[in-house]
């Protein structure tokens, strides 16, 4: 009996092959390429946050392409000559920028009307007319140090294949209702989310002119910055947190390279770093050789929990997502103790751990198995076909873990991207699920989901929020298929951001803020 | 055949010319089915120009020449996701040809024609990653391993992504009963 693949093979099967003009055009393109220079591989790229997909270039008319290509060749040749003569700028000493005001953004499109306190689509962070340039920026990493104050680092990338240029910064002081643009030091792109010890004291990792790892700190809520070059053994900061304005710990990478081809969400050679003087000095601790740690949580100055995958794996198959590495430290990360990985789930491709205090931690776990599983949206079958995420909880500082109860039936195959726990018992998990939805004329196979537990995972409820009746101008329906970031400084003060393509003009913001 | 880009002097034009002759038409057609003939002319040319520029990066140990070329094509198409989406949504708005039942031996082309708006709507509902693996499988005829090589992802990832995409496609076809090769609502007619 034919199946859906047979039907798909027959769909548009009458599409003709290339005509003479197409052959000729391709021959000419290859002939032109004979003079082209292959770029050197290995340039480092900042990590792309979970909230961003790749940018899509609009199609230009062919005449414009030829003209633009000529301009690009001339400018590129000039830039290439300059690049060989003039190396990119570097910092040899800290630099502090002057205080600059935030630039208010005009009010954008409002989301779905709902009572304050109820989960709802609040607005769009970068509606048309807000963007810094024609290609963006768009939301990336989200950090909310208080119920009222949230920061979002945005992406100015103009190329689908280029790095995620995280060089824009937005701030909201009213619970994500309105946003302003903050200054970012020239030449800096963020490589990590902001880590904030208070509303005004924040820090971030970055790259200076795309090549030199730097540490950025602000005591003015992003109006002025101190940029310090990082020691060579620290590398590029990927993720970290700060318990005070000067004491921060996290993960850095010497290369910034993915752990394996096709695993863009994991990075190779991550090491633990700490600073206790606001970025003037650093200590660096490598993890055991067999551990490719991907996430660390340090709720106190001494206690830390780290999770990751095994570093030895078959390059063809990628890392083992079903068996993870779990480490804890009680001396601020100087030494690490190996703990047994929890049973029943693996680390998956986006391992994440978060701790509210020295005892209470939660992690995103991953389950996959062979077989066939059906639900209202169809079926999955074959090897490792059944895949979903679960949440694990620990009440002893990460030494032992219990698997949470499953998510509600209304979330059959959750793919959780972000987890935040404002209290020891209340956690919010956000991501996407195979739940079909219609937005206007657009049919989506997936939906954004947020779930909450108020009893440390013994039970979960899916929160509900309405999506627009039709896709707002400048957006695509797939903006409502996934949530990439969520932060809840208080139980009833959460902000979540939908996933958009790199270069999208707008991204939905959800909140339950009263 | 898959060694062509490396035989003789690395990437020597005569070898590439042979590869071009063999693979251009199927790659063009793959692109044209996704984004239409107008854009396919540009993208297929760009795909082979890219392949020529990057020919020294081709490694036969990591996958066939065919999968490498389709991988380049898929990446280029992804940059024109909006064009592909608009084309699918246009097809999805076409009136269905029929929703009756089909004989067991019905030509799948006949059924596909009847279901074209639904298939287009279901494809439009997939995300870019799902659509890539599904169409590389169905239209380019790549295996799991070849899809993994083409997209630079692990074999397991290709398998699971394809499985999810198939499930979503099937769900998008809604009330079509694959076991009986008929529409479920036909039972109630």
CATH architecture of the largest domain in chain B: Orthogonal Bundle
From the alpha-carbon coordinates, what is the Rg of chain A to the nearest angstrom? 24 Å
> Count of DSSP E strands of chain B?
2
Give me the side-by-side strand order of the main sheet of chain B.
1-2
Count of helix runs of chain B: 8
Main sheet record of chain B: 2 strands, antiparallel
Number of domains of chain A: 1
Structure description:
The complex is a heterodimer of chains A (514) and B (189). With 514 residues, chain A is mainly beta. Chain A has a single domain, classed as TolB, C-terminal domain (Neuraminidase, 6 Propeller). Chain A has three helices and 35 strands. In chain A, a hairpin with a 5-residue loop joins strand 14 and strand 15. The N and C termini of chain A lie far apart (55 Å). About 10% of the residues of chain A have low confidence. Chain B is an all-alpha fold. Chain B has eight helices and two strands. Chain B is globular. The chains are: A mainly beta (514), B mainly alpha (189). At the A-B interface, helix 1, helix 2, strand 24 and strand 29 of A face helix 1, helix 2, helix 4, helix 5 and helix 6 of B.
Please name the defining characteristics of this protein.
heterodimer, A: 514 residues, mainly beta, Neuraminidase, 6-stranded antiparallel β-sheet, 3 helices, 35 strands, globular, B: 189 residues, mainly alpha, Rna Polymerase Sigma Factor, Chain: A, Arc Repressor Mutant, subunit A, 2 domains, two-stranded antiparallel ribbon, 8 helices, 2 strands, 63% helix, 2% strand
Q: SSE layout and pairings?
A:
The complex is a heterodimer of chains A (514) and B (189).
Chain A: H1 4-10, H2 20-33, E1 52-53, H3 62-85, E2 95-96, E3 103-104, E4 120-124, E5 138-143, E6 150-155, E7 168-172, E8 180-182, E9 188-190, E10 195-196, E11 202-208, E12 212-218, E13 226-229, E14 236-242, E15 248-253, E16 270-275, E17 283-285, E18 291-297, E19 304-310, E20 324-329, E21 337-339, E22 352-355, E23 361-375, E24 378-394, E25 402-403, E26 415-420, E27 427-433, E28 437-439, E29 442-444, E30 447-453, E31 461-463, E32 483-490, E33 493-498, E34 500-501, E35 508-511
Parallel strand pairs in A: 1-34
Antiparallel strand pairs in A: 2-13, 3-8, 4-35, 5-6, 6-7, 7-8, 9-11, 10-11, 11-12, 12-13, 14-15, 15-16, 16-17, 18-19, 19-20, 20-21, 22-23, 23-24, 24-25, 26-27, 27-30, 28-29, 30-31, 32-33, 33-35
Chain B: H1 13-35, H2 37-53, H3 65-78, H4 81-92, H5 108-124, H6 128-138, H7 144-151, H8 155-172, E1 176-177, E2 182-183
Helix pairs in contact in B: 1-2, 1-3, 2-3, 3-7, 4-5, 5-8, 6-8, 7-8
